[in-house]
């Protein structure tokens, strides 16, 4: 298995997995919407998408969005999406993707990586803790538009 940056040639495979990722979070199947969304992120260079491959097939991805820390005056990253195809889970693919995300942060001299997962997603929480992520206890607020 290996990890590399996604290219526009990977659009169909990444969009397919992105659609499955959204369905995991109870969103309706939307192949064309997923493809359009991922295409826009790639073309507008609004995110970093890393893909995991096994025998040339894309089996998972992670998507990072750039943000900034004003206090430290440095870049930071929001790890917004992580998904591994069902038949490839529990094989270390997610750890490879998390390690690649950490490397992007190091390479860009970032202050930190941030992620959020569902309160009921115990599997993901255990994965993050196992890979050195620290649970934050700060209060977060959100305003839905």
TrEMBL record:
Gene3D superfamilies: 3.40.630.30. GO terms for molecular function: acyltransferase activity, transferring groups other than amino-acyl groups. CDD domains: NAT_SF. Pfam families: Acetyltransf_1. Keywords: Acyltransferase, Transferase. InterPro entries: Acyl_CoA_acyltransferase, Bact_Acetyltransf, GNAT_dom. The keyword Transferase applies. Residues 1-145 form the N-acetyltransferase domain. PANTHER family: AMINOALKYLPHOSPHONATE N-ACETYLTRANSFERASE-RELATED (PTHR43877:SF2), AMINOALKYLPHOSPHONATE N-ACETYLTRANSFERASE-RELATED-RELATED (PTHR43877). This is N-acetyltransferase domain-containing protein. The lineage of its organism: Bacteria, Pseudomonadati, Bacteroidota, Chitinophagia, Chitinophagales.
């Amino acid at each position: 298995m290996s990890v590399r940056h996604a290219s526009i040639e990977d659009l169909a495979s990444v969009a397919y997995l992105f659609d499955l990722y959204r369905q995991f979070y109870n969103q309706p199947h939307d192949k064309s919407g997923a493809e359009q969304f991922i295409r826009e992120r790639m073309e507008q260079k609004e995110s970093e998408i890393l893909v995991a491959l096994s025998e040339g097939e894309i089996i998972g991805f992670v998507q990072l969005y750039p943000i900034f820390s004003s206090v430290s005056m440095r870049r930071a990253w929001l790890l917004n999406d992580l998904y591994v195809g069902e038949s490839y889970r529990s094989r270390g693919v997610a750890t490879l993707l998390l390690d690649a995300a950490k490397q992007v942060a190091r390479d860009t001299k970032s202050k930190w990586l941030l992620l959020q997962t569902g309160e009921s997603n115990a599997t993901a929480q255990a994965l993050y803790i196992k890979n050195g992520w620290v649970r934050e206890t700060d209060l977060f607020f959100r305003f839905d538009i």
